[in-house]
Design goal:
single chain, elongated, Arc Repressor Mutant, subunit A, Rossmann fold
Length: 224
């Protein structure tokens, strides 16, 4: 799932980007509100993490502009300001959550999981399609009880499929949600990673879950 991180403290930005990437998210990062607004207009993000106090445009102003333009990406605010009035203002603007600095990394990751679930309409951190199970919190995948080891990119790709079961996803849509702007892979990157994923979750199984829809893309579903 793809995230935008807008945080002007460069060391914190670097640390958060690294950890979120390790968790399997596609992350674009920037350092001011104007740039954050440009990013959010240019791509369909599954969630945005915005610092409140940023140069050029603060996080509140970014969110207000997003909602005026009909951009519905879920937003988590990061801030050192813990006044109730500030939290209420951010939530009234349409933010999904508010995390006060300093915070623990594990709490941030938990809140990001909730943020992404909210955007996709999923209520649990454990996703299932047939006998395929994915635990987003524990970062584990299994099929019929058999553990499946995935790379960070494979995990991200499967998470996107699991959040969108029975929906045919085009290659372009998959690439937009799993990779960030800095990725410079080949044009067939989606096909390559779908092959990797299919080998791990479907090979040797009587019932296949990951299907190609010729001319349209791919779909994760349990067929009769």
């Amino acid at each position: 799932m793809r995230l935008l991180l807008a945080e002007d403290e460069r060391d914190l930005n670097r640390i958060l980007t690294k950890r979120l990437t390790e968790e399997g998210y596609g992350v674009d990062s920037c350092f001011d509100g104007a740039e954050a607004l440009d990013y959010l207009r240019a791509a369909d993000y599954d969630g945005a993490i915005l610092d409140v106090m940023m140069p050029k445009m603060d996080g509140f102003a970014v969110l207000a502009r997003l909602r005026e333009e009909g951009i519905a990406a879920p937003v988590l605010f990061l801030t050192a300001r813990d006044a109730v009035e500030d939290r209420v203002h951010g939530l009234d603007l349409g933010a999904s959550d508010y995390l006060v600095k300093p915070f623990s990394m594990e709490e941030l990751l938990a809140r990001v999981r909730v943020l992404v679930r909210q955007g996709s309409g999923v209520s649990s951190s454990v996703l299932a399609v047939g006998d395929l199970r994915m635990d987003l919190a524990a970062h584990t995948v299994s099929r019929a009880g058999r553990p499946i080891a995935l790379s960070a990119r494979e995990f991200a790709l499967l998470a996107y499929f699991m959040h969108n079961p029975n929906i045919v996803l085009s290659r372009e849509k998959i690439e937009d949600h799993v990779w960030n702007f800095e990725y410079e892979g080949g044009t067939n990157v989606v096909d390559v990673y779908v092959r990797y994923l299919r080998k791990k979750i479907d090979e040797g199984e009587e019932r296949k879950l990951l299907h190609t829809v010729r001319g349209s893309g791919y779909v994760l579903r349990e067929e009769d």
